[in-house]
Amino acid sequence: MSAVHIENVHKSFGKLEVLKGVSLTVEAGQVVAIIGRSGSGKSTLLRCINGLETIQSGRIEVVGHTVTYTDEKLRALRKDVGIVFQSYNLFPHLTVGQNIMLAPRITKGVPKEEARAQAEKVLAQVGLSEKFDVYPDNLSGGQQQRVAIARSLAMQPKVMLFDEVTSALDPELTGEVLLVMEELARGGMTMLLVTHEMNFARSVADFTVFMHQGKVWEMGPSEELFSHPKTPELAAFVKSTLK
Amino acid sequence: MIESFGWPEFMFLVRATGWTLVLTVVAFLFGSIVGGAFAIMRLAQSRILRNVASVYILVIQSVPVLMVLFLSYYGLSLAGFDIPPLIAASLSLGIYVSAYLAEIWRGSIEAVPFQQWEASSSLAMTRGQQYRYVILPQALRISVPPTVGFLVQLVKNTSIVSVVGFVDLARAGQLINNATFQPFQVFGSVAVIYFLICFPLSRLSKHLEKVLHVGRTH
Ligand SMILES: Nc1ncnc2c1ncn2[C@@H]1O[C@H](COP(=O)(O)OP(=O)(O)OP(=O)(O)O)[C@@H](O)[C@H]1O
Ligand SMILES: [Mg+2]
């Protein structure tokens, strides 16, 4: 069974149709990059996968959950699907450690000691062990984003979604975040990532999906897709990102 | 007989101050509980709850608190309920307080960035958990200055209860002035007492803001 199965999904905001029949399958352990111009529907697609956006038609299945919009079904889905946003969205009133331990403790009933050990483990994974008791505002953007990734990982998700997680960062800070993601990918995590980092997509993602006008315009193994675009739209897009 | 403003008169003011404080505290506590519930209802997912809360807030804010006071004091006693002025007064003020706090707190909750809702719901939290662990702690900090500002107004607005025969600080000042005819001493003292109540409140607000600000450097 595939980890993520998206079938002919249509999504509109009012009269504006943003996803016009999107289908996509991701197998467990695969890393898939989603690229495309601004407004092509990349974020919307990603947010549909964990039910943050409601679709009008089609079907989405994620690690055994059919995306269904009841509170209970959504919570069950979200225990298995992590998402990291462009703007980190850490909880500013909690320390790094508390940010990470909160959800496992209250949503999964993980005992305190176990949650703490788990938090220390994921924090080490993103290279921030010494920041356990620090508040988010005292961290750099890159560090905050790594904490956000750790916070998601602490839920032990089966799939991770990343929406332009380096776009808000100063260029010198993107590397540390990309490195964490690369290690996650190597560790076998199933990942879907919307990104503007073409080199990262090309070197880390098994497959890349090019979205255009609300559709999967072209997709294929990353290396091949970037070196031999089949559609003029992708060719133009790739060219525009090289500048 | 004309008396002068001396120690007994001053003690009379102090006792009246006690009543002003009691009224303020009771009205504020009652108003907080009811107002808190209405603030959450105002933001509920159910349209019915939202509408009920909107109507309540709208009605209470459109009616002068004086009318609520008359209604609960004279109206209820006409209907056969014998309620003491203290209860009538604190209940009426509490209702008035609840509508304003509901709006202040709704605004504070809405001031928490919506991304905090998205991040917490993406971590599989229930709506109750989101409120309790993520949203309300942040809304609390935002709500401190307007809430304390309102409380300071409330301390002074409690003087309205004199219309049902309740002797609060302002009313006590009037009574003493009628007897002594020393307005400068009497109302000067009254003003100082109000100041002594309200000034520490403002300081408390600053302090609370700092305490609740832990970990935030800007
Ligand atoms: N909540 C919303 N309400 C209305 N329109 C929306 C909403 N979210 C997105 N849109 C619109 O849907 C379209 C697709 O948006 P989306 O955010 O998915 O694009 P994107 O490919 O992620 O773009 P970017 O690269 O700029 O992030 C855009 O036209 C956007 O304005
Ligand atoms: Mg986007």
Automatic annotation (TrEMBL), chain A:
Annotated Gene Ontology cellular component terms: plasma membrane
GO MF terms, alphabetically ordered: ABC-type amino acid transporter activity; ATP binding; ATP hydrolysis activity
Superkingdom of origin: Bacteria
Membrane disposition: Peripheral membrane protein
Pfam families assigned: ABC_tran
Keywords associated with the record: Amino-acid transport, ATP-binding, Cell membrane, Membrane, Nucleotide-binding, Transport
Record's subcellular location: Cell membrane
Primary location group: membrane
PROSITE patterns given in the database record: ABC_TRANSPORTER_1, ABC_TRANSPORTER_2
InterPro entries associated with the record: AAA+_ATPase, ABC_ATPase_HisP-typ, ABC_transporter-like_ATP-bd, ABC_transporter-like_CS, MetN_ABC_transporter-like, P-loop_NTPase
The family this protein is said to belong to: Belongs to the ABC transporter superfamily.
This protein's name: Amino acid ABC transporter ATP-binding protein (PAAT family)
Automatic annotation (TrEMBL), chain B:
PROSITE patterns named among the record's database cross-references: ABC_TM1 (PS50928)
TM region positions: 20-41, 53-74, 86-105, 184-202
GO BP annotation list: amino acid transport
Compartment(s) of residence: Cell inner membrane; Cell membrane
Recorded GO MF terms: transmembrane transporter activity
Keywords: Cell membrane, Membrane, Transmembrane, Transmembrane helix, Transport
InterPro entries attached to this UniProt entry: AA_ABC_transptr_permease_3TM, ArtM/GltK/GlnP/TcyL/YhdX-like, MetI-like, MetI-like_sf
Coiled coil: none
Its membrane topology: Multi-pass membrane protein
Primary location: membrane
Statement: the UniProt record of this protein carries the keyword Disulfide bond: no
A single GO cellular-component term on record: ATP-binding cassette (ABC) transporter complex
Family: Belongs to the binding-protein-dependent transport system permease family. HisMQ subfamily.
PANTHER family cross-referenced by the UniProt entry: BLR6398 PROTEIN, MEMBRANE COMPONENT OF AMINO ACID ABC TRANSPORTER
Name used for this protein in its record: Amino acid ABC transporter membrane protein 2 (PAAT family)
Annotated source species: Chelatococcus asaccharovorans
